[in-house]
Design brief:
With about 150 residues, this protein is mainly α. The protein has a domain of about 40 residues. It comes from Nyctibius grandis (Great potoo). This is MYO5B protein. Keywords: Coiled coil.
Length: about 150
């Protein structure tokens, strides 16, 4: 049983390695194609007049910036979608907290007194902590603004 397990693991690793090598080969081929395209474009621009070279360079830069802009818009849409999802979750959790607090208000005084004793013990155990959030100092204004909203 043990040698079979090792053999199966070795085969899995070999398969993963082969898939990774294949993916890297595809990536190298794609890079070679891109390099060839860039070389051809460069050779074509050398044959152009200086004014045409400048115009071609500007067109290339505009194309690059447009593609970069589209990528950034796509990223922004993903982040906004994630923000909406997180806001919905926050509303759900806020509702649960309010429901929990309302249910705690109806607990008899004896039960609440026992609960306070437990909370005090927990607070003493956690007294060593400075806080629950870790953040960079430059992110503090953003964190405060998000906490307020």
């Amino acid at each position: 049983p043990f040698p079979r397990l090792l053999e199966a693991q070795l085969q899995d690793q070999r398969r993963e390695h082969e898939e990774e090598v294949e993916a890297l080969k595809k990536q190298v081929d794609a890079m070679k194609e891109e390099l060839e395209k860039q070389q051809q474009a460069f050779l074509q621009t050398l044959q152009l007049s200086p004014e045409a070279q400048v115009e071609f360079g500007l067109q290339q830069e505009i194309t690059r910036l447009t593609n970069e802009n589209l990528d950034l818009k796509e990223l922004l849409e993903k982040l906004e979608k994630n923000e909406r999802k997180l806001k919905k979750q926050l509303k759900i959790y806020m509702k649960k907290v309010q429901d929990f607090e309302a249910s705690q208000a109806t607990v008899p005084a004896e039960g609440r007194r026992h609960e306070r004793n437990i909370q005090v013990a927990v607070q003493r155990k956690e007294k060593d902590f400075q806080g629950m959030l870790e953040y960079y100092k430059e992110d503090e204004p953003l964190l405060i603004r998000n906490l307020i909203t």
